[in-house]
């Protein structure tokens, strides 16, 4: 059944990185079911402020647990080692504005490839992308953009129009899609005529079963297998490929 996944991400959130990676990997399969993916930059700091949410690192119990969860997620999604930088939680306005510019001016592949690189610089190399010189360096390294194009991206990122665009992305994510964090996905299922039949939010990078079920696409879930080779029954009705 046709549908869309609107994914709202911020490079200040490592779990946004995992969501972006996973969505890019499964895009061809979803496309075979007429499901489109759209990645949108939002400002997580603005979402937290508007909803009263707090970064996990500011809550002692969550901060203590965080490194375990992050390491497990890195292994699960097959990424390089990611750890919280000393400037975490970071102010991501500049990089997110730059991504708004790149999304508007360049191809989907360039946009998403550059976006992926931001998380590596922040959470692996611990480079603060709030600094314009650092942002310029990562855009040049990411590939796909010349030095003149990078300079233009940085210039446009400081304009009223682009600042308003990031604000609008964030406002819509909060007010229309109910966001309180990132990654935040708005999953839409449409009928054959293209009319919206279902639209629901999904938060986080570890709830893909819910996404697939909402879209109505076939999938195989993880099953626990005993020593006798018998698979445990699932409480979820799983459509087999």
TrEMBL record:
* InterPro entries membership: DSBA-like_thioredoxin_dom, GST_Kappa/NadH, Thioredoxin-like_sf
Pfam families linked: DSBA (PF01323)
- Tell me the ranges covered by the DSBA-like thioredoxin domain, including all copies: 7-208
Q: What is this protein called?
A: DSBA-like thioredoxin domain-containing protein
């Amino acid at each position: 059944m046709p549908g869309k996944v609107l994914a709202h991400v911020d490079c200040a959130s490592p779990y946004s990185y995992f969501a972006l990676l996973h969505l890019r990997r499964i895009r061809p399969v979803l496309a075979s079911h007429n499901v489109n993916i759209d990645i949108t930059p939002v400002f997580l700091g603005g979402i937290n402020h508007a909803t009263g949410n707090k970064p996990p690192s500011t809550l002692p119990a969550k901060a203590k647990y965080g490194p375990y969860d992050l390491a497990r997620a890195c292994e699960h999604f097959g990424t390089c080692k990611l750890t919280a930088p000393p400037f975490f939680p970071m102010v991501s306005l500049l990089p997110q504005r730059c991504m708004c510019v790149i999304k508007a001016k360049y191809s989907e592949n360039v946009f998403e490839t550059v976006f992926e690189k931001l998380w590596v610089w922040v959470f692996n190399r611990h480079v603060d992308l709030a600094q314009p010189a650092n942002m310029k360096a990562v855009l040049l390294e990411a590939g796909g953009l010349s030095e003149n194009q990078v300079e233009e991206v940085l210039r446009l990122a400081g304009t009223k129009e682009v600042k308003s665009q990031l604000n609008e992305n964030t406002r819509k994510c909060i007010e229309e899609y109910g966001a309180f964090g990132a990654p935040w996905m708005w999953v839409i299922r449409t009928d054959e005529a293209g009319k919206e039949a279902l639209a629901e939010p999904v938060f986080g990078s570890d709830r893909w079963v819910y996404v697939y079920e909402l879209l109505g696409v076939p999938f195989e879930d993880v099953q626990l297998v005993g020593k006798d080779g018998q698979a445990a029954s699932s409480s979820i009705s799983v459509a087999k490929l």
